[in-house]
Write a structure and sequence with these properties.
By secondary structure, the chain is mostly beta strands. The protein has one domain: Exo-inulinase, domain 1 (Jelly Rolls). This is DUF1080 domain-containing protein. InterPro entries: AL/BT2_dom. GO terms for molecular function: hydrolase activity. It comes from Seonamhaeicola marinus.
C-alpha cells in the first residue's frame, strides 16, 4: 500500500491526495471503552469510569457516530464529537509525505476530561493492533492536538498490549524540565528517555478558529508545523520491537473527549524536506 501510494503521486507530478470524502472511504473507525455516563448504547455494552481499560467497542462499531462528515460553508468537514475515545485510521500506510490539515475546536467536552484541556491528536507511523494504547490507539508517533499545546510530541506504546510494548524511540534536540522535555532548535543536547515533549512555540489560533497543522516526514525523521511555524523536530524514530527505523505507518485522528473539526486533509509524496525546513532545522 505504501509503494502504491507513492508511485501514484509521483506519476502525476506529486499531485496531492485528499483523504476526506463523504463516506470516509479511506478510513476505518475504532472506538474505545465508553464512559459510564454515556447514554444511548445497546443493552449490555461495557462501560467504565476508567476508559483506559476493559472491553472497547472495537472496529467499525461507531454506534454513537463519533466520526462523521458534515458540510460547513460548502466544504466537507470531519466532525468528531469526542463522546467516546477512538481513532479514525487510514486503511493504507504511508511514508515520505507532507501532511496538511485544518483544525478547530468545538465547545462540547465529555467525561473523563470535563475539567482539563480539550484534546485530540494526529498519530502517524502507526502500527500493530488497534487498542494497544488505552484500548484505543496503535503504537505510533503523536502530533499532539491539545489546547495551547499544538504540535507537542508523544511516543505512544502498547500499555494495554500483551506483552506491553514501549513507545518508539526518538531523538529530540532540547532541554529537560522537572517533568518533561521541550524541543529547542538552539540546543546542542539531545534529550534522553523521551516521553511527552513540549513544542518550541505555541502559535495557536483563538478558540473556534481554524489552525493549519502540518507534518513533514522523510524516512524516520519528522517535522511538526503549526500555522506555518516549525514547532517540533523528531529524529531517528525506531521501532522498539524490532530495532529497525520507523519510516512508515498508518495515520490516526483521535477522539479524546472534546468536540473538534478537521478539514482538507491532504497528503503529498515528497523526496526531501522543503527548503524552509532544510534552512531552519539542524538535523543530527
Amino acid at each position: 500500500m505504501v509503494s502504491a501510494f507513492i508511485l501514484s503521486l509521483n506519476t502525476y507530478a506529486q499531485k496531492s491526495f485528499k483523504l476526506f470524502d463523504e463516506t470516509l472511504s479511506h478510513f476505518e473507525k475504532w472506538n474505545g471503552v465508553p464512559h459510564t455516563t454515556i447514554q444511548g448504547l445497546p443493552e449490555g455494552t461495557y462501560q467504565s469510569d476508567n476508559v483506559h481499560a476493559g472491553t472497547p467497542l472495537g472496529l467499525n462499531n461507531d454506534i454513537k457516530n463519533v466520526f462523521t462528515m458534515i458540510t460547513e460553508d460548502g466544504e466537507l468537514v470531519l466532525k468528531i464529537t469526542g463522546e467516546i475515545y477512538g481513532g479514525l485510521t487510514t486503511k493504507a500506510s504511508y511514508e515520505n509525505y507532507h501532511l496538511s490539515v485544518y483544525f478547530k475546536w468545538g465547545d462540547k467536552k465529555w467525561p473523563p476530561r470535563l475539567n482539563v484541556k480539550r484534546d485530540s491528536g494526529i498519530l502517524y507511523h502507526c502500527y500493530g493492533d488497534h487498542g494497544r494504547f488505552w484500548k484505543t490507539w496503535k503504537t505510533c508517533l503523536e502530533y499532539q492536538v491539545q489546547e495551547t499545546d499544538l504540535g507537542d510530541f508523544i511516543p505512544l506504546g502498547g500499555n494495554t498490549a500483551e506483552p506491553k510494548v514501549p513507545g518508539p524511540k526518538v531523538e529530540i534536540r532540547g532541554t529537560r524540565g522537572e517533568k518533561k522535555g521541550k524541543y529547542d532548535p538552539n540546543s546542542d543536547t539531545y534529550l534522553k528517555k523521551i516521553g511527552y515533549t513540549d513544542a518550541y512555540k505555541e502559535p495557536d489560533a483563538p478558540h473556534g478558529e481554524w489552525n493549519h497543522l502540518e507534518i513533514y516526514v522523510i524516512g524516520n525523521d519528522a517535522v511538526h508545523l503549526v500555522n506555518g511555524e516549525i514547532v517540533m523536530v523528531v529524529e531517528n524514530a525506531t521501532n522498539p520491537e524490532t530495532g529497525a527505523p520507523l519510516t512508515s505507518g498508518q495515520i490516526q485522528i483521535q477522539s479524546e473527549a472534546a468536540e473538534c473539526y478537521y478539514k482538507d486533509l491532504t497528503l503529498t509524496s515528497i523526496k526531501k524536506f522543503p527548503k524552509k525546513i532544510r534552512k531552519e532545522v539542524r538535523f543530527k
